[in-house]
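WARN retry 2 of 3 for item q-0093 after timeout on previous attempt; input resubmitted unchanged.
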Amino acid sequence: MHNPELDRIDRRLLAALQENGRASNLELAEAIRLSPAQTLRRHRRLEEAGIIKRYEARLDSASLGFGVVAFIHVTMERGHIRDLSNFKGLVAELAQIQECFSVTGDIDYVLKVVARDLKSLSDFLLDTLMRIPGVSGVKSSVCLDEIKCTSAMPLDA
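OK item q-0093 returned
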């Protein structure tokens, strides 16, 4: 479905939802200064257009015992096209991998991975990631401090 043109009210609605995805329709209507019926109609249109992909709870990884965040650069064997669907399928199934991006440059993929500790990260790299067919190398960077973490889109940019 093609995305509709967003006006300033749509942008205010999206901003309010990014701030509080659990806001009621009445709270959203008050925040964007529109009637509840018009707010609901716009909200549904944004969902149907795929602009709003889903709603989720953001959990605190450290509180759940995941003390390590790492960014993993994955290099695939040349001619890895034959293993691409297998790699993507395994990445989708591995809960430790929070994000995966196909990138340009000397590496093929960048993964964001969480682990309970450095030993768990090492085990994941050696026993799981390096054993995926087509993977020829990995380089990891362990996060020392999280400065900014958001999924909010810049609506005014």
